[in-house]
Amino acid sequence: MSEDLLPGEGPTTAVSVSFHVGTISAVRNRVGKRGVSAYIEAAVHRQIERDNLDEIIAAAEAEHGPVAPEEIAAKRAALVAARRAHRAGSTVA
């Protein structure tokens, strides 16, 4: 049953979707004609992940209250530092 499959699992299936000409042109310019499906699949996966994270955050805030802006800034700074360290080929201690 398709309801039991996670995003990215199972066989592929053809669907018809509509895009603005500028959007599909930008995608084709990035990946060529043969990479469109994979590019859109990856974009949909990212959106599903974001939606899932939004649901988790909403549930946590409902239980514990909103996250303080200072806490968000600290986590963002830690992520930026980790990203920079990763690009430099090291790890953050």
Q: Overview of this structure, please?
A:
There is one protein chain. With 93 residues, the protein is an all-alpha fold. It has a domain at 2-66. The protein has three helices and no strands. The longest helix is centred in the middle third of the chain and has 29 residues, at 36-64. The protein is extended, with a radius of gyration of 19 Å. The N and C termini lie far apart (44 Å). The relative contact order is 0.06.
Write the layout of secondary structure elements.
Layout: H1 21-31, H2 36-64, H3 69-88
Give a short overview:
The chain has 93 residues and is an all-alpha fold. It has helices spanning 21-31, 36-64, 69-88.
Top keywords for this entry?
mainly alpha; 93 residues; 3 helices; extended
**Helix segment tally:** 3
Major β-sheet profile: none
Decide which structural class fits the backbone.
Answer: mainly alpha
Number-wise, the strands total 0
Strand-and-helix sequence, N→C? Answer: HHH
- Quote the beta fraction: under 5%
Shape label? extended
Q: Radius of gyration, Cα only, in angstroms? A: 19 Å
Mean pLDDT: 92
Cα separation of the termini: 44 Å
Helicity level: 55-70%
- Unreliable residue runs: none
Describe the oligomeric state of these chains in a short phrase: single chain
